[in-house]
Amino acid sequence: MGSKCIYLADTFYKLTAGSKLEVDKDFGVKGFMVKVKTCKSRSNEAGQEVELVYEQKRGFSNVLSNFNFIKKAGLLGGNGRAYYIKSDLYPELADVKFTQKTFIEKYESNEEFAEKFDEICHSMYMDFIYQPEAYDEVDENPEEFEEE
User: Fold this and answer.
1) Which pLDDT tens digit goes with each residue over 37-74?
2) DSSP bridge pairs for 34
3) Which pTM value belongs to this model?
């Protein structure tokens, strides 16, 4: 009875608490990092891992987790005193400087920057989770089958 959930689930994740985050360091929040590993997935590859930022006041931070993801992917230039986003699509983002602690402020105060940052993250996540075989059966010409 106790193992049915594991076998019937479409996805199964393992969440592991990681390093502690402090307000005066890291991302400027109190919390900890959480490693998420896909143990089972019927729609994607099992074994993939990503780290999320967990704030004790607000829960998981989408913005800071995305920042951490692109940082680990090597899309940030500069150093801890002044990072910038390296992007061939948006070269103007190289002029926007921030630190880990000030990133959330920059994101919330600059709507154009936030929009372009989200687009970069979206394309990276699509590469991370995309499984072309899942879309093989999608009909590319739906108008052929319309009723006349």
Assistant:
1) 887 766 666 767 889 999 999 999 999 999 999 999 88
2) 17, 52
3) 0.75
